[in-house]
Amino acid sequence: MRCELLLGNEAVAAGAIDAGISGVFGYPGTPSTEIFETIQLHAARLGPVSAGGVSADWAPNEKVGYEEALGMSYAGGRCLVTMKHVGLNVAADPFINSALTGVNGGIVVAVADDPGMHSSQNEQDSRILADFAQVPVFEPSNQQEAYDLTRLAFEYSEEVNLPVVLRMVTRLSHSRANVTLSGDNGEVRSASLKEAGGKALPDPNDWTLVPVNARRRYQRLVNMQPSLVRDSEICEQNTLHLTGSRGVITNGIAYNYLREALGSAADDWSILKITRYPIPVGLVRQIVDHCDELFVVEEGYPHIERRLNGLLGLRGLAVRGKLSHDLPPTGELDPDIVAAALGVPRPAIPDAIKGLAGRPPQLCKGCPHADSFRAIIEAVQGEAHPVLFSDIGCYTLGVMPPYRAVHSCVDMGSSISMAHGASRMGVHPAICTVGDSTFGHSGMNSLLSAAAHDANITVFVLDNATTAMTGTQDSLSCGQRLIDIILGVGVNPEHVHVLEPKPQKHKENVEIIRRELAHRGLSVIIPQRSCIHVKPGRPVQATVGGQCSCANGE
Ligand SMILES: Cc1ncc(C[n+]2csc(CCOP(=O)(O)OP(=O)(O)O)c2C)c(N)n1
Ligand code: SF4
Q: How far is the CA of 434 from the centre of ligand 2 (A)?
């Protein structure tokens, strides 16, 4: 046994290593990223997979990451898949279908939700997608549980032959607490590897989802649901404390807010803490029967509350929560909000954190995107209605003054397809800005379509040689490979240009952009300069057709 001060995300990583994973797969996204990065740090020490180590390479997107994990599971390895909540939308196809195939080596999908949208475009609740896929969810309320539940989730995944979702949220992912690890990484891990190892390949009929197999596998999934509910009811992680006639059903991090709000009065309240799903119906029934007044305090969507209310509500018992407007329907909870809803005195907030000044994000000084935006803005001057579609990355900050050069940001990879759609309505110039990592994530499919139809759009792939926004992880689609992809999907090389976004090159860059805006067809411009936080030595300047296409031929 040893004790370490860990982030929630680091605790998940430690749990996965100790559970004997052979691989971690995923795509960066706040607040999940440190899970993967922590395992990456240990991967070098653990050696190659063939020698009991861990494979830890970022995938180009969450769907690819999930499928790579599924392949490793097929071959008998335990895998952790990491992503932020919206990443699960991208991985939804293999995720939902893997509930039918089942797993061979255990799969745990660590998804970090972002209630309050600290760094996300929405605050969707991953429990809903897991419920949709009909797979179990484990939801830690603290760092120790993050470690313990990750290990347990691998065992349960193999026991029920299903992927298990581990739902994290920002506050848990990014706060630290002491975690007791079950021993020296090496010995616990080898025991887990032994337990997990030696699996025969599965029956191909179970993994080939043609209708005759898929119907059988879906029936298996549906038939399993009552036993999954029973497991939730009898597991020791779902705890029921019955005492007073006022009760609360709560989940994950919200349990901490509840404890803080109630303080020593917590002992007088009946509390059901749900840590494992499907919802433990029997435990819910007990607290409902016991209480005269029932609150549901849950972080995320009113998932449990909706189930309780059903269509008509519980007979004779008003359920108070988000749906009844006792708690706010959006944003994060906190002890103060919970105390107000329960009608108990509010916990005192230390003065030090009151009135902290906000720090709106902005492009770093010297950022290559700033020079790209300056050139684009000048080039479109004189155009009646330029529309500047954009995407998700540091460059989305081009929405702020002085640039105001971002008119849309919806989901990763959307800028090219949206520009393409708008061009079909006659919008000109239809411009889009997309980063190199986002391009590799899903933008390149959109470019394939734009190239096939020679869409009248001007695409800027802003190559800063990294996935900057999430902490400068490697990008799989920068430098020469980026250009090869662009040419490979069929964009006319005459309308592909590499620029150096620098003040000294501003004038010539503006000229090239103007020329391409005048072209009634597809152009791709690649402003290429490393993010200032990328270490020298990462990908070098690349060229179209082996020769730089900048106006001065450099
Ligand atoms: C589906 C999905 N996955 C992950 C993220 C997190 N995320 C936001 S931007 C980004 C990548 C940014 O890299 P790039 O496009 O190269 O732009 P840069 O930040 O380097 O300018 C990622 C991974 C997200 N918002 N949505
Ligand atoms: S991290 Fe890099 S890409 Fe992002 S704003 Fe700063 S310099 Fe620009």
A: 14
Range 239-348 has CATH code 3.40.50.920:
yes
Atom of ligand 2 nearest to the CA of 533: 2
Q: Please state, in angstroms and rounded to a whole number, the distance separating the CA atoms of residues 524 and 522.
A: 7
Rg (CA), the chain: 26
| Smallest CA separation from ligand 1 atom 3, residue | 87
Domain boundaries, the chain: 2-234, 239-348, 368-527
Answer whether 400 contacts ligand 2 (Cβ < 6 A).
no
Buried b (16+ CB within 10 A) or exposed e, 21-31: bbbbbbbbbbb
Compute CA distances 287 → 127, 252, 325, 353, whole Å: 22, 18, 21, 37
Instruction: Answer yes or no: CATH 3.40.1190.10 is held by domain 368-527.
Output: no
- At 255 the three-state DSSP class reads helix
Q: Which atom of ligand 2 is nearest to the CA of 362?
A: 5
Identify which ligand lies nearest to the alpha carbon of 467.
Answer: 1
Q: Quick check: do 2-234 and 368-527 share a fold?
A: yes
pLDDT truncated to tens, each residue of the chain (554 aa)?
Answer: 889 999 999 999 999 999 999 999 999 999 999 999 999 999 988 899 999 999 999 999 999 999 999 999 999 999 999 999 999 999 999 999 999 999 999 999 999 999 999 999 999 999 999 999 999 999 999 999 999 999 999 999 999 999 999 999 999 999 999 999 987 657 888 888 888 777 899 999 999 999 999 999 999 999 999 999 999 999 999 999 999 999 999 999 999 999 999 999 999 999 999 999 999 999 999 999 999 999 999 999 999 999 999 888 888 888 999 999 999 999 999 999 999 999 999 877 666 666 778 778 889 999 999 999 999 999 999 999 999 999 999 999 999 999 999 999 999 999 999 999 999 999 999 999 999 999 999 999 999 999 999 999 999 999 999 999 999 999 999 999 999 999 999 999 999 999 999 999 999 999 999 999 999 999 999 999 999 999 776 544 445 544 323 222 22
Q: What's the pTM value of the predicted model, to 2 decimals?
A: 0.94
CATH number for domain 2-234, candidates 3.40.1110.10, 2.70.40.10, 3.30.420.60, 3.40.50.970: 3.40.50.970
Give the position of tokens 């061009």.
423
